[in-house]
Amino acid sequence: MYTSFINTVKSIADIPIKRIEELERLCKSKLIKKGENFIFAGEVPEKFGFNLKGLFRYFYIDNDGNDYTKWFCTENNFIISYSAMILKRESYFYIEALEDSNILVINYNEWQKLLNNNIDLNLLKVALLEKIYIIKENREKEFLLDSAENRYKIILKEFPNLEKRVKQYHIASYLGITPESLSRIRANLWFVNIDQWILFLHIVYLYYLWR
To answer: Which residue, 1, 43, 62, 93, has most beta carbons within 10 Å?
Structure first.
């Protein structure tokens, strides 16, 4: 029994444990080494996964060989190239393990068979689609309305400790900026934090001086 998988599914949709166990029986455990791909661009996906432990990056590669990070998948999240899978077309992006990762793999055709006449698991499907849509809408809003600095603050909140797990250029490409621009943003935020600490210590000093 995969406790983290069951708990995550229950947090997404309120469905009976019996149905979750039916889904769990479709899962096959797999180790993906750092640098290996779960999905390749150009592949027609016939599977999706669940990240038990590890880290993945979704990314595109253009005709000049430049890569652009689409998303990071941390523990207790589903790993999927969804539109390619349901449309039975080639995936536009790669899904690469950035760390040695333990995942559960679910065959898409078996998943579809399980959904037939199963209201509970269809509720899970709808909830997952809603989650994917919210992520997509937020990403669009960030790129259209937010500054690079604000996008950086958002990623720090959404993915705690990510900076310790990935290379700086991965974060930069996710933000749509160069590594040099990211370094400047980080330096500016560092100086802002230092200024705030200096102000705080100055207030504390004056308080004890005049009390």
So the answer is: 93
The number of residues in the chain equals: 211
Please state, in angstroms and rounded to a whole number, the distance separating the CA atoms of residues 162 and 156: 7
Torsion angles phi and psi, residue 202, rounded to 5? -65, -40
| pLDDT tens by residue, 164-197 | 999 999 999 999 999 999 988 888 876 445 545 4
The SS3 of residue 70 is strand
Angle at 115 between CA 114 and CA 117, to 5 degrees: 105
pTM: 0.85
Spatial separation of the C-alpha atoms in residues 129 and 131, rounded to whole Å:
5
Q: How far apart are CA 70 and CA 57, in angstroms?
A: 7
Residue closest to 120 by CA, chosen among 27, 26, 6, 20:
20
Q: Quote the longest CA-to-CA distance of the chain.
A: 75
Three-state secondary structure of 119-180: HHHHHHHHHHHHHHHHHHHHHHHHHHHCCHHHHHHHHHHHCCCHHHCCCHHHHHHHHCCCHH
